[in-house]
Amino acid sequence: MRKRLIECVPNFSEGRDKTVIKAITDAIESVEGVKLLDVDPGEATNRTVVTFVGEPEPVMEAAFRSVRKAAELIDMSKHHGAHPRMGATDVLPLIPVSGITLEECAELARSLGRRIADELEIPVYAYEASALRPGRKNLAVCRSGEYEGLANRLGHDDGADFGDRPMDEKIARTGATACGARDFLIAVNFNLNTTSTRRANAIAFDVREKGRPKREGGKPNGKPLTDENGKTIMIPGTLKGTKAIGWFIDEYGIAQVSMNITDMARTPLHVAFDEVSRAAAARGIRVTGTEIVGLVPKRAIIDAGKYFLHKQQRSSGISEAEIIRLAIRSMGLDELTPFRPEEKIIEEMIAPKGEKALTDMTCREFADETASESPAPGGGSISAYMGALAAALGTMVANLSAHKAGWDDRWEEFSDYAEQGQALMGELLALVNEDTAAFNLIMTALGLPKGTDEEKLARAEALEKATLYAAEVPLRTMRAALKSFPLLRAMAEKGNPASASDAGVGALAARAAVMGAGLNVRINAGGLADKALAAELVKTANELAAEAGGAEAEILKIVEEKI
Predict the structure, then answer these.
(1) Which of these, 471, 489, 445, lies nearest to 541 by C-alpha position?
(2) Lesser CB count within 10 Å: N end or C end of the chain?
(3) Which of 543, 537, 505 minimizes the C-alpha distance to 520?
C-alpha cells in the first residue's frame, strides 16, 4: 500500500524577525516523521510561507504546534505588511500528495480547525475543499476585511466556523486563521522557441481557464466587450483549473508560458504540455521543453510517463524509474537545468537516507546478508522475494507480448497485465523488508526487563503482539503470492509462446513463496499464548498452501502443452 503523504503550507504573518520564524519552524521540526521542505520569508509582505510534508498524523500535530507558537510570538495588533492577512497563522492548507484523497484532507483540515479553536481559542474559517459554507471556498471571502475587519464579522452571521465569538483581547493578538484543503498546485513553465512575450501571452490566453477578453469585431486591438453589468466578456481557454501568462526570461533568452495548474484532476501535467504544444504550433511556435518550479508529486510524473507510453502503444507495466525517465525526455524537463527526481519529486526527496533496506541491495549483497550468521533475513523474507520474482516473470512475459510483432492490436491488453504484475511485485518486495522488521520486533520484546510482575506482564503482552505480527506478515505474503497465479496462467495461455517456460518458472516460484511463507506462519503461530488464534492462523495457511498447489499444477500443465 502506498504511504499516505500530505503537504502543509502555512503562511505566517511574520517575514522580518528571523528569531520568530526559526521558533515556528523549530516547532514544526520537533514532530518526528515531518520533513521541512522550504521556508520562504518576505520582508515587504511581512509574511513567511513554510512547506513541510509527512504522513497525516505527524503533519497535523506539527501544524498545530506551529499555530500555537505563532500565536505566542506574533501580535497582530502591531502587524503591517503588503499581503492580505487576518491572523498570526493566516492560512493553513493541507494538500494530498500520495495515498490520500482531497476529501480525506478536507476532513483532516476541519478536525485541525476544531482543535485550534478549542485548545488555542483562535477563531477558524474553513475554506477551499473544507468549506462548510459554499461561499467560503474562496479564501478571499474568508479573509474579507482582513484583520481590521474581524471585529465586524466575529460573533455575527459572518463569524468563524470554529471558535466564533465577539472580538476580545486574545483575538486582538492572534487574529483568525483560515484552515482548509486544496489540491497540489504545480507551477510549470513551458519553454518556447521564440523571444516574443506577446506571442507567449497569446498562447497563454488560448489555454488558461480564464481565457481572453472578447473584442469588438474579433480583432486583437478591438475594444473589449462588456455585458449588461459592465463586466468584460471573456472567451474561455481550453484548460480547466489553470492560470497562465507569457513572459521573457533574460537568463535563458527565451519566452515561456508560465502556468499554475490548480486542479491536477481536471488538467494533468501531460495534458497541459500537449495543449500548450498544440496552441503554440497553431501560431508557428514550438514548445522545446518544460521547467517545473519547486516540487511535484510523483503521481504527476508517473501519469505523464504512462500517457506518453500509451501514445506510442507501448506497455506501461515497467519500473517507476523507467517511466520517470520517459516523462523527463518526453516533456523536456531537463532542457534548462537537470531534472533530478531526488530533488524535484516530493516522495523521492523525503525518502529516508541511511542504511540500505534489503530490497535496495544488489543480488549478491542480499545473498551475502542472508548467508551471514544473523538470523534475519531468513525464510520469510526469501519467500516474499520469491513471490516478487514470480510476479516479475509474469510481468516480463506481459511486456514481451505487448511488443510482439504482429500483436500490435493487443498491446493494451498486455499492458494491463504488466501493470497488475508491477503492483504485485511492489507489494511483495515491501513484505521482504517487513518480514525482517517483524523478526526484529520479537527480539526487541525479548529484550524487555522481566524483574517485577508489572514488567513481566508488559513483556508478555509485547511478545504476544510481536509474535502475532510475525505470523501475520508471512500470511500476507501467502495471499500476495497467490494473486500472481491468475497473471501467470494468463501469460501461459495467452502470452508470447516463446516465453511459456518463463510463466512456468513463475508458477514454481509463486508456489515456493506460498509454501515457504506458510512454514513461517506455522512456526510463529506456535509461539502464541492464544492457542485458538494460533490454530486459526495455521488453518488459513494450510488452505492457502493447498490452493497454491492446485494453481501451480494447472499452469505447469498448460506450459507443458506449449513447449
Answers:
(1) 471
(2) N
(3) 537
Cα separation, 470 vs 434, in Å, equals 9
| Residue from 168, 14, 39, 145 nearest 90 by CA | 14
Secondary structure class of 211 (helix, strand, coil): coil
Average pLDDT estimate for 510-519 = 97
Provide the mean pLDDT of the chain. 94
What is the separation of C-alpha 342 from the centre of its chain, rounded to a whole number of angstroms?
Answer: 14
Per-residue model confidence as pLDDT tens digits over 401-444 = 999 999 999 999 999 999 999 999 999 999 999 999 888 899 99
Measure the CA–CA gap between 428 and 480, rounded to whole angstroms: 7
Task: Please state the pTM of the whole predicted model.
Answer: 0.80
- How confident is the model over 118-135, as pLDDT tens digits? 999 999 999 999 999 988
Distance between CA atoms of 69 and 351, rounded to whole angstroms? 28
Cα 234 to Cα 201, 276, 279, 431, 435, distances in angstroms: 15, 19, 18, 55, 60
Query: How many other CB atoms sit within 10 Å of the CB of residue 371?
Result: 8
Q: Which of 301, 290, 236, 293 is nearest to 264 (CA)?
A: 301
**What are the C-alpha distances in Å from 346 to residues 102, 298, 362, 457, 496?**
17, 7, 25, 43, 38
pLDDT exceeds cutoff 70 at 1? no
Q: Which of 90, 158, 263, 435 is catalytic?
A: 435
Note the pLDDT tens digit of each residue in 345-368.
988 888 777 667 888 899 999 999
* 435 in catalytic set: yes
358-562: in CATH 1.20.120.680: yes
Clarify whether 156 is annotated catalytic: no
Domain boundaries, the chain: 5-181, 186-349, 358-562
User: Which candidate in 83, 164, 310, 403 is catalytic?
Assistant: 83
Tell me the three state secondary structure of residue 198. helix
CB-count exposure of residue 460 (10 Å: 0-12, 13-18, 19+)? middle
Distance CA 301, CA 324 (A): 6
CATH code of the region 5-181 = 3.30.990.10
Amino acid at site 90: D
CATH 1.10.3210.10 fits 186-349, yes or no: no
Return all residues near 77 (Cβ < 8 A) that are at least 6 apart: 172, 173
